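INTERNAL AUDIT FORM
Audit reference: QA-55
Scope: verify that the stored structure record matches its stored sequence.
Auditor: D.O.
Record contents follow.
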Amino acid sequence: MDRILYTAMSGARQSMEQQSVVSNNLANATTSGFRAQLHALRAVPVQGDGQLATRTSVVASTPGADFRAGPVNATGRDLDVALQGDAWLAVQAADGGEAYTRRGDLQVDATGMLTSGGRPVLGENGPVVVPLGAALSMGADGTISAIGAGEDPEALVQVARLKLVSGGDAELLRGNDGLFRSFDGATGTAAPLPQDEQARLVSGSLEGSNVSPVESMVAMIDNARRYDMQFKVIESADENGRKADSLLSLD
């Protein structure tokens, strides 16, 4: 069998994997604070029994995330926050560890816990819990103040402070859950970042996704055409094999 079948098959498979990355980005084009996942294809020599100087395989990779900021729009909602600069909001991941997000459409659940995308938001002393029914306001440094129902404005008190950290593409790595984490280079384990006293947010605004729907749609079309091209190569190789078999059967 022509070794081109293997290389074309690898190209088709990697095109499908790349398509899944593009599809995920496009699905989050309206998710607050979403950072697009980057994708790339590269050619590598065929290894093993199929090794041949004229044959190469294709490997898809996700080298990181696009850290460009998304557009910021005013909403007027007190619990909507847009992180400024390289600031990130600390949240509790599903495994109980600390992770970071730019998603700022905060909510208060039935127990008074502040959440971002369903995940507990972390403060200086763990998950943030606010008084139920209180009117909340957010300071630029992440301080949360509350006024109880029916109380005078003079009763405004600080009830918590969000943990804000700073990090860029060199400090943070994207996880499969869409959250970002900092890792210790020596041990390879997640290492929480310290609170940044200079990190700031804007209350009453939301940062949108940095995904371009137009670019994502173009990438999807490009991947689909590349996938079709690989299958045409497979069909051509199969046809050549059948013709070769018919010629050999004449002997």
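Auditor finding: record pair retrieved intact. The longest helix spans residues 213-249.
Action required: none
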